[in-house]
Amino acid sequence: EAGCLFTDREVAAAGEGAIKCGFNVAYDAPAGDLTTGDRFSIAYLGNEDLVLPTFIGSGPFEIRLRNTVLDLDNADGDSDRATGITGADINVVDGPDGGIVDGIDLIVTGFDPHTNVVSFAVQKGESIKPGDSFTVQYLNKEDLAVPATSEVTQQRLYLEAIEEILPEINKIIVSPDAESVLILGGREGLTPIPLGPSPAPQQ
After folding, report:
1. Three-state DSSP class for residue 68
2. CA pair distance 65, 152, nearest whole angstrom
3. Of 61, 84, 146, 185, whose Cβ has the fewest other Cβ atoms within 10 Å?
4. Which residues pair with 16 in a beta bridge?
5. What are the residues facing 45 on neighbouring strands?
6. Using CA atoms, how far apart are residues 161 and 155, in angstroms rounded to an integer?
7. Contact, 139 vs 74, CB < 8 A?
8. pLDDT at position 194, please?
C-alpha cells in the first residue's frame, strides 16, 4: 500500500493516520484442489519488533527470534536458503540512537540457527535503556496451513457467480450425460454451469 510504514516505531512517530505495511499470500496446489490443513511454507523479507531486555547493562545480550531465519546473502555460495545462515543475514533497521556514535546503537554480532537466537552488542560509548524497542529485518520462513475458510470462500464465490447468471436464464435443460453439470439455456445459447465447487479429495 502506498505510503505505508514498515515498523511500529515509524507508525508511532508518524502519528494519526499512519499505516503499517502488510502483504497477502496466494497459494495454488500443483495438482488437484487445496484442502483444509494442507501444509506449505513461505519466505519473505520481513521485520520483527523486539524489546531490550531487563538488566541489559552495556550489553552484549541475546534474543530469540519468532520466525525461522533463512540465508539472505548466500555468502556460502550454495544457493540453498536453509544453509550458511549467520548474523550477517540479520540487520537492525530501526532502534535507539544516542547520537554519540553515528547510527543505530545496536549491532548484530552472531546468530545460532539451531536455537534461533541472535546476539547483539552496543556501540562503544553509547548507552541503552531496558524496554526500548528496536527492529530487525531478515528473510523469514513461516510454516502455514490452508485455513478452513478457503473452502467456505469457494462456496461463496460460486453462489455469487450463479446469482449473476440465473436472472438471464429462461429455461433449464438437464443433460443426461453429465453428472455434475447443468446446461442452462439462455439468450446466448447453452452455458455449462458446475453444480458446485470441486469437492475436496478423500484422504
Report:
1. strand
2. 34
3. 185
4. none
5. 139
6. 10
7. no
8. 59
Query: What cell does 28 get?
Result: 495454488
What is the per-residue pLDDT for 113?
A: 93
Are 46 and 99 spatial neighbours (Cβ–Cβ below 8 Å)?
no
Residues 6 or more apart from 101 whose CB is under 8 A from it?
123, 124, 125, 126
- Nearest Cα to Cα of residue 140 among 68, 40, 91: 68
List, in order, residues 6 or more apart from 30 with CB less than 8 Å away: none
Rounded CA-CA distance 43/149 in Å is: 22
Q: For 17-173, where are the alpha helices, taking DSSP H only?
A: 149-165
Largest CA distance in the chain: 84
Q: Which residue has the cell 510504514?
A: 5
Q: Which residue has the cell 494442507?
A: 38
Tens of pLDDT along 134-191? 999 999 888 888 776 655 566 666 666 666 666 665 555 555 555 545 555 555 555 5
